[in-house]
Amino acid sequence: MSEELVAKYKKRLEQELELKATTPSSQLFSQEYDIFRKEILPPHMSLYESVCNSCEKVLKLKANPEVAAKIQGEIDSCHLQISPGGVLATSYLLPLAFLLISTFLFILMPTLVDAFLPTGQQPGAFASFLLGFESLFFASFAFIVGIAAIFVLQKIPQVLANTWRLKSSNQMVLCIFYVVTYMRHTSNLELAIEFASEHLSPPLSLDLRKVIWDVESNRFDTIKESLESYLNGWRQYNLEFVEAFHLVESSLYETSEERRLSLLDKSLDVILDETYEKMLHYAQNLKGPITMLHMLGVVLPILGLVMLPLMVNFMEGVTWYHIATLYNIALPIVVYILGKNILSNRPTGYGDLDISESNPELKKFKNVIFKVGNAEFSLHPVFIAVFVGIVMLFLALSPIILHVLSPNFDISFDKFKFFEYKPSTKTTDIIGPFGLGASILSLFFPLAIGVAAGLYFRLRSKNVIKIREGAKKLEDEFSSALFQLGNRLGDGLPAEVAFERVARVMEDTISGRFFSVVAENISKAGMSVKEAIFNTRSGALVAFPSAIIQSSMKVLIESVKKGPLIAAQALLNVARYIKEIHKVNERLKDLMSDIITDMKSQIAFLTPMIAGIVVGITSMITFILGSLSSQITNLSADQVTGQLSTLQGFFGDGIPTYYFQAVVGIYVVQIVYILTVLSNGIENGADRLQERYLLGNNLLKSTVLYCIIAGLVMLIFNLIASRIIDVAVIVT
Known about the structure:
Blueprint: H1 2-16, H2 25-30, H3 33-40, H4 43-58, H5 65-77, H6 84-116, H7 125-131, H8 136-154, H9 156-169, H10 172-185, H11 189-199, H12 204-216, H13 223-232, H14 239-251, H15 257-284, H16 287-304, H17 308-314, H18 320-344, H19 355-358, E1 368-372, E2 375-379, H20 381-405, E3 412-413, E4 416-417, E5 422-423, E6 430-431, H21 436-441, H22 444-490, H23 495-505, H24 510-523, H25 529-534, H26 547-560, H27 564-638, H28 642-650, H29 657-684, H30 688-731
Antiparallel strand pairs: 1-2, 3-4, 5-6
Helix pairs in contact: 3-12, 4-6, 5-9, 6-8, 10-11, 10-14, 10-15, 10-26, 10-27, 11-12, 12-13, 14-15, 15-27, 16-18, 16-27, 17-27, 18-29, 20-22, 22-23, 22-24, 22-27, 22-29, 22-30, 23-24, 26-27, 27-28, 27-29, 27-30, 29-30
């Protein structure tokens, strides 16, 4: 009897609220939440989830209750299905496996091979290969990395949660905008959250779906309890978001329509004002960390490279791969962690999203599209990037390949040799290449990485960024267009006629073109207003894929059912909201302009220039030291003296500029990548599309600029060095 009574009143409420019985929340969210979660989670998070669950089966650990509660909160924030015990098990098992493999590879295996090798017998090719792994440096480096990995892996949930929060915080202003916009004409919190989740992109859309899922799965009894539980996770990080939602909830209890609307407006004002204030403090405190990052990651390491040729020439056992380990592995990781730490403190802000992720129809524009006749073909940019990278890598390796094929082959020009392989002063090995030609060819190492990666990112984002820029131009003027449309509706005109009138008034603008498409679809194709806007083939939104415009039009469709006056008021309020959000975003960009300008100059000019000059100086020092060593060797052979023999002992083999430049060039590419990701994160938040576009531009320009400067400086300084050596020989 009670169930029949509940069903009766539920049906009556649905009729009064003009809701359809065919669209319950459970149908939209509960049945699809888990599938949606799996589709949205990035591959690296799914992989981490699998690794943690596997490690937990091998090693059962129980964390301290306080630590476990903290880790569990971070796990819940990013929707991972793992336990704190799995995180701890992973943090111990993976480093332990790495340490065991490293110990076997760098210590045990060479020792065993040496022990079983007969006394006096020269090792074969395979035995020599295995003995070549023996290295105390790499064993020590692996030990440090393994110990550090234990602490790093325990912080992975925190890193993932911070990344998730950064992406979510980009959408919080829009989230409140969508909720407030919907609740102005329909005071229903659950429907407003559904409306927001439909128009937001992950990860915040997943959070909102989870709020409703928790109600449908009986974890919470009401939507307010579920929302409160979710908001508790944001109190420490974005209190303004929590306050704004509480004001929205308060509007449900107001009997006065004027006070209800006032609370809704206040909620958006709160998050906009607090966002600006927090970003102001962030910008004020950002100068110091960015300067420190630039000094530690760019200036000091690159200038320190000037001393390395001298150290290597006067110290035995230091080779190019030791420098590569420090400069291409350890240092970029440290700089990247410092940069991520700076980004993790970024407050709720603004930022665009990759529209191709929310609109599957646009995914084809992430490929290179070309036409053959009437047929359209697309090619994934990775194939072009890999081809270019392989060709340039082959050119970079050509000195080594030619030496292997023909050890005595070389080309001489003036006082320089193209490859210049020579016998070691310490061993019987042939070392090189020391030649100027090989040093120039080594520039293809950074080109192979920088140009290939730059091409991939640029081709992957170029077409989509153009579409988004067109949609953003429409957004910039859309608020005034909505004012006009709202006024026409306020005059009592039907929506079909209002679109045509506004299109005629604004015919020379992007908004005018948008309204013209709607008007033509209505008049010529006989579509309804909803079809004219949202039709997947010929709707006006196909050419203007914008979440804000789409949501504004959905508000129009929903509110016009209640009459033109209510629709007019709804559009006028949406227009005001859009204008306020745009104004705050512009003020925030102005706050960041000084820091972003400095970082862009570092990426575009300073870093490539400093590194290029350092490589040229290093090339000159290496040439001079090598020539002096040869001159002393020749003098010692003619007239052996104790002083010359002692002086000759100071000189080592040195590192060929060929390898040294490759290490520096690759480091420049890595630093440009890290600084680009950091500057985009500071300016635009978690905007992956803009990040890919900037990476494409910066990697191409900075890498080519570095190679040009390094090549020219090497040529000029080597010519100067040859004159210095000539004078030294004449004096001698």
